[in-house]
Amino acid sequence: MRHKKLLRAATLVVVTALAATPTAFAVPSFARQTGMACEACHTVYPELTHFGRVFKASGYLLVNLKQVRDVSGKKEELLELAQTPALSIMAQVSYSQLKTALPDLANTTLPGVAQNGTAGFPQQLGIFYAGKIAPHFGAWFQLTYSNASGSLSIDNSDLRFADTMALPDAKSLAYGVSLNNNPTVQDLWNSTPAFGFPYASSNATVSPLAAAQIDGRLGQNIAGLTAYALWNESLYAELGGYRSAKQGAANALTGAAGPLDGTASNVIEGIAPYWRVAYEHNWDRHSIEVGAYGADFKLLPGGNSTTPVPLRGPFNRFKDVAEDLQYQFVTDDHQFTVAGTHIHEAMSLDASFASLASANPSNTLTTTRAWATYYYRRHVGGTLGFFSTTGSVDTGLYGPTPAGGAGVISSANGSPDTRGWIAEVNYLPWLNVKLSAQYVSYTKFNGAGTNYDGVGRSASDNNALYLLLWFAY
Amino acid sequence: MGVIHTEHFLRLLLLLAGALCFAAASTASHADEPDAAIAAHAQLLAVTVCGTCHGTRGNSMHPKFPRLAGQSANYLAAQLKAFRGQTRGDPDAVGYMWGMAAVLDDATIDALASYYSKQKPEPSPRGNAALIARGREVYEHGVESEGVPACGACHGPDGHGVADFPRLASQHAQYLLKQLASFQSNMRNVAVMHGVAQNLRLHEMQAVAAYVEAAP
Asked: Which residues pair with A277 in a beta bridge?
């Protein structure tokens, strides 16, 4: 009864005010496939438990459903299809309210502001195939409709060819290859960028100018093949490479999907290596992980359809090296997590410096994120998170507001420094339905606390309230 | 001639009967020892799937998941069949094991049960000494005033289990407590244990669980 009342109240808040978010991941099709409740793999979605991490490393292959099979005379498995397809639907409905409204660019002569308070219905609607495809082939494949684009497009996806073997001393070895479209989307821990906190955030607020490439800059526009092994459910190593896989790009000459030409931007030169090592220790109700990961992206700036720039000559190089840490304490009543990552990016901007797009030939950028989450009986909980980005001053990369411009997405002093807090409370009436209220507070934005854009906007003006109804079926 | 034929026929019948008995006996002995291929498959499952929660040799670390090492094979097989048939209804059985056991066949269940029954139980950490001492009282003598019988009467004086009554020694106290609560509420519907647990008080359950966990 109490749950129902709370749900009604919360639903009222969300529906009347409205709410929603970005990249998403909660897949009941795994529960259908394994016959196991969400809590086996998640503390609260999308955060994984130890069992969830092993399930992922094993290729999403654990199946406890009757199968449609075919075998050859030599006992080769030719087909193994679950009788229920591993499909899921996920939706995010949201409402976002900035502390201070944004300027309305439609009216540059008369001062005006855009309407504050954005309803996203839906912010996202996702369709997943998440589960086994063949005996050693599993998939997490996601198509997402977003209100920002008004169209359906590919979202974070991860195809795995995997197997798990028992070693002589009763230790396990899970190994395989992942074919994915966003570095760290294949990772097992929630401390890395793709599945890190905030798990959902507004797409109707203002984002800072700077982020490391491995921190989601290239997602869905690259394709990577990585090989990995998880030994004894504790030691993890992964190595692979990424290449551009542009969505919505076409060869200017043929109109076909490729080869990529000068109308495409930020194209990976050759193959960008990606690496990851991690160690996890589990004892009693505790689990701790320490790890490191990184990548080396050489990006050709390219151009666009109106001003193509040949894909040759100097490139910009981004060497990303990151450390991460995750601690979990999980019981039936209490779920507590502390996690974070520290990403260091060294940029050699030969191309951008030559074209005056950057003021310096080389820069650094450092991002730190840390958060603590607590849930009571997986029903009620919250997260408090801290984020900070600091880096070289570069008036080319982080440019000032042009004369007469509206500001907001600019930096008066050329600094990318941004810092702030995120507080979030969540209520889950059922394990696949989440109601969230999140507040993002900036103490520094694009280089300063006050008048960061040179036309009077303060970092705190970008503070935002975000209400979200997030469910998956 | 007729007599000889009858004699031959009888001898043949006896031989056939003998052969059938031998075949039946060999089948029976094989039923206890799983087929090698099935045993290997069960071991792979135990290490790569079950082991994630229960430990690859059945000595789980997380107290939510019961220790299976050294457990009675009959008991383990009966539980897996109860999960498969969805007749064991305590919360973790529903959330985890109904799914995990859903498509296990009898031969694999027997092989898994056999695998865990042969693993060596590792000692659990000892808890509070006073609690353990009180638990020992309950375990060995029951609680007469509340009509609770001695646990050891069925589970053995050392807690190692007797016949189909399961081993309790070195089991996680938290797991035992949850099971006693499930017996009390009949979520795990076992008439004998409901009868035993319904009059147990929480502090008595905590004590006996601590004693049993500490038992080697």
From this structure: A237, A292
Q: Is the predicted pLDDT of residue A2 greater than 90, yes or no?
A: no
Q: Kindly give the interhelix angle for B106-117 and B73-84, rounded to the nearest 10 degrees.
A: 140
Q: Do B48 and A58 touch (CB under 8 A)?
A: yes
Q: Give the up-direction half-sphere exposure of residue B143: CA atoms within 13 A in the CB hemisphere.
A: 19
- Residue among A2, A5, A10 at smallest CA distance from A435: A10
- In order of their start, the domains of chain B are 36-117 (1.10.760.10), 129-214 (1.10.760.10)
Of the listed ranges A73-87, A232-246, A396-410, the one predicted with least confidence: A73-87
Report the distance separating Cα A142 and Cα A181, nearest Å.
Answer: 11
Contacting residues of B for A64, CB less than 8 Å apart: 99-103
Alpha-carbon distance of A36 to A40, in angstroms, equals 7
- Residue labelled with tokens 């709370």: A6
Instruction: Compute the nearest-CA separation of A171 from chain B (Å).
Output: 7
- Which one-letter amino acid corresponds to residue A471? F
pTM of the full structure: 0.91
How buried is residue A101: exposed, middle or buried, by Cβ count under 10 Å (0-12/13-18/19+)? middle
The DSSP bridge partners found for residue A385 are A371, A422
| Cα–Cα distance, A119 to A466 (Å, whole number) | 10
Mean pLDDT value across chain A: 93
Which residue in this structure is represented by tokens 């292959």?
Answer: A61
Q: Are A420 and A443 a contacting pair, CB within 8 Å?
A: yes
- Give A225's strand partners: A179, A241
Q: Which of A35, A167, A172 sits opposite B102 (nearest CB)?
A: A35
Provide the ipTM. Answer: 0.89
- A397-418 as b/e, with b when 16 or more CB fall inside 10 Å? bbbbbeeebbbbebbbebbbbb
In order of their start, the domains of chain A are 2-105+113-472 (2.40.160.10)
Contact indicator for B54, B64 with CB cutoff of 8 Å? no
pLDDT digits (tens, 9 = 90+) for A52-81: 999 999 999 999 999 999 999 988 889 989
Q: What residue has token string 């990403």? A: A343
- Closest CB to B47: pick one of A170, A330, A332: A170
